[in-house]
Amino acid sequence: MAFGWTKHGDGKHLAPGEVVRPDERLSWPRMVGFGAQHVVAMFGATFVFPLVMGLDPNVAIMMSGVATILFLLIVKGKVPSYLGTSASFVGGVLAIRALFGGDTAGADAIVTGAILVVGFVLALVGLAVHFLGADVINRIFPPVVTGAVVMLIGFGLAYVVADVYWPQDQWMALVTMLVTFVLVVAFKGFVGRIGILIGLAVGFVLSWGADRVFGMVPAYDDGAVQVAAHFRVDLSKVESAPWFGWPDTHWPDFEFSAVLLVLPAVIALVAENIGHVKAVGEMTGTDVDPYVGRAVAADGIATVVTSAVGGSPTTTYAENIGVMAATKVYSTAAYYIAGVIAIGFGLIPKFGALVSATPSGVLGGVTVILYGMIGLLGAKIWIENRVDFADPVNMVPIGAGIILAIGPVKHLISDDFRLEGIALGTIVVVGGWHLLRVIARRTPEAIRSDAG
């Protein structure tokens, strides 16, 4: 069932070691808080990546809410997840724009048309997995590979902290990180479980105050990253944004050559969805493998729906895995609430502008925690399944793939197409492990049926 949550305990407290499972909930006011925290966690990347790809971020935010609700319905509420903008398409989209006129309405339509086709292919892969059974996935993605994919999804986002968020305001990033540390650990109740949201709010207020006490953040230039002097909080877009408005949607157009440039993203999306489902299973202690196919298909269908109106490609969001790991609340009720809030942001530009005004330094302090926790979930999968890293078949491709993701290393396939970061690392991990297993004439290691 997609709806009908059982109240966990008294709806207010969690005993040590307890978790709120996907079909459970706490009190509704608390669930609204958790839903808001998930929106904050996804908002930065879901808003930024469309900008990088030249797509409308308000459409992306609104449709991410639609995509999330659609995903939850398809997986029958068994796999808690938020579907935000996928970063795996960035390289391919930039290549498409280089071929089809750059930042124009025509290129926009070709970009979203190519993304729609990828979503359709992903949905077909999900259907195949669903009908052939989860064993197919277990053979392709054994624990050593799954753990690596989860890890590189988290650690592969380290460059976002290092090159984008942290340099914008190093001291505020550090302060926000430390405040969030204390909130998450020192407070055991509801406050601790929404510590990331509170930490972000505290960082926002401190940034606003710092602008008035200390003035602008000084310019920063270390040779690789340059940041101009700037105020931490800019509310000008909040003031100018209308209260209500429909975002700038458009219909897709289709070019075969454009589709080829983004089609490899299917591999990364399959791996990301499987990694997400495995991570949820590990964290909740439940067997959600039977829903892997549904999850992959749901992401594909969601991508088709979002791109059909000019939105961005979707994927299960690593940031929200981090929120669940920190709060121990895996209730899908929080994600339905988050989806509704996101749709509201898309239709109420002023609220969206307020959230998007969150200082980059503050985001750096929060995301460094979230991304690290995601990466360590991959290590937990290895530990629970007793992966043997004395075996070079396990150690060599896994280590190489993680380094490629963390870099992020860019590999040019042609003048117009490249693989990089998480997508490249995922391909090396999955393809490299199976190639070396064949060379070593090994059989896949046994898959544990329990979650630890």
What does this entry look like structurally?
The radius of gyration is 21 Å and the shape is globular. The protein is mainly alpha-helical and 452 residues long. The chain has a two-stranded parallel ribbon with strand order 1-2. Strands 3-6 form a two-stranded antiparallel sheet. It has a two-stranded antiparallel sheet with strand order 4-5. It has helices spanning 28-53, 57-74, 90-99, 105-132, 134-140, 143-155, 158-165, 170-186, 190-193, 195-214, 236-240, 256-262, 265-284, 292-307, 318-327, 332-347, 349-356, 360-384, 392-406, 421-439; strands spanning 6-7, 24-25, 83-85, 220-221, 226-227, 314-316, 410-414, 417-420.
Topology:
Layout: E1 6-7, E2 24-25, H1 28-53, H2 57-74, E3 83-85, H3 90-99, H4 105-132, H5 134-140, H6 143-155, H7 158-165, H8 170-186, H9 190-193, H10 195-214, E4 220-221, E5 226-227, H11 236-240, H12 256-262, H13 265-284, H14 292-307, E6 314-316, H15 318-327, H16 332-347, H17 349-356, H18 360-384, H19 392-406, E7 410-414, E8 417-420, H20 421-439
Parallel strand pairs: 1-2
Antiparallel strand pairs: 3-6, 4-5, 7-8
